[in-house]
Amino acid sequence: MEYELNSILIAFGLTLLAGLSTGIGSAIAFFSKHTNTKFLSVALGFSAGVMIYVSFVEIFMKARESLIEAIGIQLGSWITAASFFLGIAIIALIDKFIPEQENPHEVMLVEDAETGRKKKSKLMRMGLFTALAIAIHNFPEGLATFTAALTNPHLGIAIAVAIAIHNIPEGIAVSVPIYYATHDKRKAFRLSFLSGLAEPVGALVGYLILLPLMNGVTFGVLFAAVAGIMVFISIDELLPAAREYGEHHLSIYGLIAGMAVMSVSLLMFI
Questions:
Q1: From CA 253, how far away is CA 69, in angstroms rounded?
Q2: How far does CA 248 lie from the centroid of its chain?
Q3: Distances from the Cα of 104 to the Cα of 14, 185, 209, angstroms
Q4: Whole-prediction pTM
Q5: d(CA 16, CA 146)
Q6: I want to staple 15 with a disulfide (CB 3.0 to 4.6 A). Which of 23, 108, 141, 203 is the partner?
């Protein structure tokens, strides 16, 4: 498959913006005394709704169409399903090998670190490991954003926005413990910002390694795996975090709103 330079640059740009939104979370942590948990609950639910809807309605179906066209309906359908669950397995393994206390999707509130100022070394360790954990998580997310944006820029924008929302609390999770350990806002912001750079690195790997090999089969397998990754992130990370930040119904309202907005945006570009 041949792609224009303009499409590749747009895909990289969207992936970069999604990854660096960890910096927004870091800024929120510095300028807020309390986390707006209701807003975060709705926003995370919205992000999950966008990602689940687009994974099943658009990404999975495009992967299936590509594989069926390349290798036939029976084998193509089986490989699509296998690739979807392979994507889930990959991101689940990444999640499993990150200790729970350093997992970037454990809820961290701005006000929580106030009580831990004396435990500076523990806070610093927590912040550094969280930054590393986020970088590991963001790598496949960057690949997902880049692949989707390369195929369909409108789809890429939707996924980039969803992942950007998802990355905001991750930025808080890195910067809060590091700031209270060092009282250095620049250092906390820098580490939070750098952890988001793993997403464009994931895009770069996709560009250098996968793009030259891209054909109907590779595209179908990759796209189905991306759908699996996004569904797992939504169900395992975004929705539980959304429920912990606020009332149960707020996360569900956000989820439905995300699905509705994604549905309308896809219909507009038919």
A1: 38
A2: 22
A3: 22, 20, 28
A4: 0.69
A5: 9
A6: 203
